[in-house]
Amino acid sequence: MPMTKSSNVQIEPAKESLLEVKQLKKFFPVKKNFLHLNKEKTFVQAVNDVSFTLYKGETYGLVGESGCGKSTTGRTILKLTDPTEGQAIYNGSNIFKLSEQELRKVRQDIQMVFQDPYSSLNPRKRIGKTLEEPLVIHNIGNAHERTEIVMEILHTVGLQLEHYYRYPHEFSGGQRQRIGLARALILNPKILIMDEPVSALDVSIQSQILNLLKKLQSELDLSFLFISHDMGVVRHISDRIGVMYLGRLVEEAPTDELFSAPLHPYTQALLSAVPVPKLGTKRERVILKGDLPSPMNPPSGCVFHTRCPFVMERCKSEVPQKKHKTMEHHVACHLYDE
C-alpha cells in the first residue's frame, strides 16, 4: 500500500467563544423641560447595534474617541445599566434575561475594573475590608480565610501585606489601580472588563500596569475586554481591536492587520495620529473636518458621512452593512461594497 506524504500545514485549533455580544443597543431617554413639551420623546443613542465576540484567553480592545459609546458598552454587558435591545451570551445564557440570583453568579465570573479607582473605593474603609467585601457578598470562606485570600491577592498585584491596613488616600494612583485590579480578581473571574484602566496614570506607571495585566492573563487564564481611547496602549495589549464611532462598530480586525492595513476612513484617521517610533518614518496625517455629531440626533445613513473625506451620495441615506474583507477583518463602509 503506497505511503502518503504527511502535510506540513498546521491547522489552528478553533477558538473557544466566551462572550458573545449581539446587536446591543442602549438608548438613554432625554428628560423634557418647558422648552421641549411639545416635542417627541428623544433619546441619546449611546450604543447602536454593536456585535462582537470575546474568545477565551484573548484581549479584545474596544477603541474610539470620547463619547463613542465604548464605556457604555462595557457597563451594559454587565447590566450595570439596562440594555435597550440585544443580547450578551455567556455560558449559553443571555445575561440580560437572568434573574438577580443568576446575575450574581455571572458577575462572579465577569468583573469590571473602572477608570478612576479612587472614586470606586470607600474612603472610610481600610483596603483590606474593601477587598473582603466581595467574598462576604458571595459567602466565600470565614473571617480568617478571607483575610488570607486578601493578603494573597495583594501580593499577586504587586502590593505589600501592610497595605491591608491603609486607607485609599494613602496610596498613589498606580497603587489604587492595583487595588481595583485586586478587587476584580479576588473572585477568580474568567473575564475582566476594563474601562480606561491606565488613562489617568503616568506613562511609566501605565507600562507597569499593562505588563502586570499580561502576566496575570497568562497565569490565571483570563480574557480581557479592554476599553480605551489610546491606540498605542490598545496595540500593546490587544489581540483583536474593534473601532467604535458614534455608537456603532465600524471596523474589527486582528491588531497587526488593523495597524498595517486599516480600511475604514475613521480608523485611518485615528491611526494617522499615532506617533511612529522609527526615525525617518512618516505617516500622512488625516485631519477630520467638523465636530462629532450629537448622539441625540445622529446623521442618517452612515454616521461618519458628515466627516468622511470619501463620502458618496449613498452614504447619506444607506446604513453600511458589515463586510468580511478577510476571515477576521470586518468593515462597515460603502467603499468596500462589491
UniProtKB/TrEMBL annotation:
PROSITE patterns named among the record's database cross-references: ABC_TRANSPORTER_1, ABC_TRANSPORTER_2
Keywords, A to Z, come to: ATP-binding, Nucleotide-binding, Transport
Would I find Lyase among this entry's keywords? Answer: no
GO biological process, alphabetically ordered? peptide transport; transmembrane transport
The answer to whether keyword Cytoplasm applies is no
Q: Which InterPro entries does the record associate with it? A: AAA+_ATPase (IPR003593), ABC_transp_ATP-bind (IPR050319), ABC_transporter-like_ATP-bd (IPR003439), ABC_transporter-like_CS (IPR017871), Oligopep_ABC_C (IPR013563), P-loop_NTPase (IPR027417)
Highest taxon, organism lineage:
Bacteria
CDD domains assigned: ABC_NikE_OppD_transporters (cd03257)
Domain named ABC transporter: which ranges? 19-271
Coiled-coil ranges (or none): none
Which Gene Ontology molecular function entries are recorded, alphabetically? Answer: ATP binding; ATP hydrolysis activity
State the family it belongs to: Belongs to the ABC transporter superfamily.
What NCBIfam families does the annotation carry?
A: oligo_HPY, PRK11308.1
Q: Could you tell me what this protein is called? A: Dipeptide ABC transporter ATP-binding protein
What species was this sequence derived from?
Answer: Cytobacillus depressus
